[in-house]
Amino acid sequence: MDEIVVVQVKRIVDMGAYVSLLEYGGREGMMLLSELSKRRIRSVAKLLKVGRIEICMVLRADEDKGYIDLSKRRVDAEDARAKDEWFAKSKAVHGIMRHVASLNDVDVTELCKKVSWPLYERYPDAHEGFRKHINEEANIWSELDFSQPGEDLSGKMVKLKEDIETDLKRRLITQALKMRAKMDVSCSEFEGIDAIKTALLKAFEASSEDCEVKVKLIAHPLFMLTCQTRDKKEGFDTLNKAMSLVKESIEASKGAYVERLAPELVGNENKEDELNDKGSESGSGESGSDSDESNQDETMGNIDEKAMAELMEKTKDLKEDED
Description:
Layout: E1 4-13, E2 16-21, E3 27-32, H1 44-47, E4 53-62, E5 67-71, H2 77-104, H3 108-114, H4 116-122, H5 126-134, H6 157-173, E6 177-186, H7 193-203, E7 214-219, E8 222-229, H8 232-252, E9 256-265, H9 271-282, H10 293-299, H11 305-322
Parallel strand pairs: 3-5
Antiparallel strand pairs: 1-2, 1-4, 2-3, 4-5, 6-8, 6-9, 7-8
C-alpha cells in the first residue's frame, strides 16, 4: 500500500488500463480511469499509450483475488522524478550484472549477491558505489567478499573484476548529462544592450572545471543556459547559480528578468509537457519566437559579437518607439 512503483502500459480498456509492474516480475495491475489525472479526462488516449512507462502508487493489493489497483494522479511530481531516476540507475546496475554474468557463465543472482546487493547496503544505491569507484573516490573491491556463502566465485574473481570494470567505464564514464534553463533578459534603460551583455556574462562565473555554462540566444529577449556534466546535482546547482547571477545583475541595472524554464535534463521531457510549455510561452507576446524553438536550440550559436549587434539593433528600435 502507498508504494511508488514503475509500470508499463499493456492494454487500454474502458475502465482504465492494464499494466505490468516492472519491479515485480511483470505482475499485472490495473490503473483505474478515475485515478489517471487530477484534471477532467477528455481522452484516455492522450494520457496513456501502450508501451509507455508510468510511475504509479499502489492503492489496493488483494492477495487472495490477486488484483493490484494503481493510481497515477496521486503521485507527486517530485516523487515521480525521484522514482524514475532510481529505476533508471537500478536498471543500469542490473544490466551490468546480467552482461558480466553471461560473459562468465555464472548465475546472475549469485553475482548480484556478491557485488550489487552489498553495495546497496553500503551506499544510497549500487549505482552510487560504482560511480565513486570509477571516479576513484572509493574502492569497491576492498569492500566485497567473493567467497561468501553461495556459489564460489573466487576462482573467477579476476576475470569478473575486469569485465565489471570494463562495463562500468563503458556505461558510466561516457554518460554526460546535458541540462538547460531558459530566461527572459531585457533592459529599456540607457545602458540597454550593455546591461544585458554584462548580465549574461555573469552566468559564466557559475562555471566550474567539470560543468561549463554556455549562453544561447533563442529570440530576444529569450535566452537559454546550457551545461554538460556527469553529476546531476552539480548541473542543477550550477544553472541555478548562473540564473541568480544574471537576475541580480540585470535588476541592478533596472532591467527585467523572467524565468521561463527551470533547470532540467535535456531529453527527458514528456511530449505533452513540451506542447504545453510552448503554448504558454507563445501566448506571452513573443510571437514566432518559440514556434521554431526546438530547431533553434540546436542551430543558434553561443552569444558572440554578431548576435549582440543584432540584439543592439532590436533594443535600439524599441527605445526609439518608446521615445
